[in-house]
Amino acid sequence: MIIILSLVMQKKFALDHVLQHFLWVGELYGLCYDRQKLMKKLLNKKKDDMSRNIQELKNIVAKLRDPDGGCPLGSETIL
User: Fold this and answer.
1) CB 41 within 8 A of CB 56
2) Are strands 32-33 and 76-77 parallel, antiparallel or unpaired?
3) Which regions of 8-63 does DSSP assign to beta strands (E)?
4) Which domain holds residue 12?
5) Cα–Cα distances in angstroms (integers) from residue 28 to residues 14, 22, 51, in the given order
6) Choosing a second label site near 26 at 20 to 30 A (CA), which of 47, 63, 64, 79?
7) Distance of CA 17 to the CA centre of its chain
8) Which residues, in sequence order, are CB contacts of 14 under 8 Å at separation 6+?
9) CA angle at residue 54 from 66 to 38, to 5 degrees?
């Protein structure tokens, strides 16, 4: 996952590729996420600070999880 996010920050992969990767990760971990919120966060990241950005992206996905195991309103369930 870190490699793919790094390549996106270097503009070697399109944002859609990253979102597709999060879908795949979500299938493994049953994540709930808000796709628009994730895209907005990704687009606002600065390319020159990749390692911090990658950690922030991980934190964003973690925050979007519902601790009760359900999904918040307006998000997609990935199973």
Assistant:
1) yes
2) antiparallel
3) 32-33
4) 2-77
5) 22, 10, 23
6) 47
7) 11
8) 8
9) 45
Gap between the Cα atoms of 45 and 25, Å rounded: 21
- Whole-structure pTM value: 0.27
The total of structural domains in the chain comes to 1
Tell me: the pLDDT tens digits for 23-72? Answer: 555 554 445 555 666 666 666 655 545 566 666 777 766 666 555 555 54
Q: Any bridge partners for residue 76, and if so which? A: 33
Residue 26's CB: how many other CB atoms inside 10 A?
A: 19
The C-alpha torsion from 12 through 60 and 21 to 6, rounded to 10°, is: 30
Q: Where are the beta strands (DSSP E) in 1-79?
A: 32-33, 76-77
**53 token code pair:** 């950005």
Residues 34-48 pLDDT 10s:
566 666 666 665 554
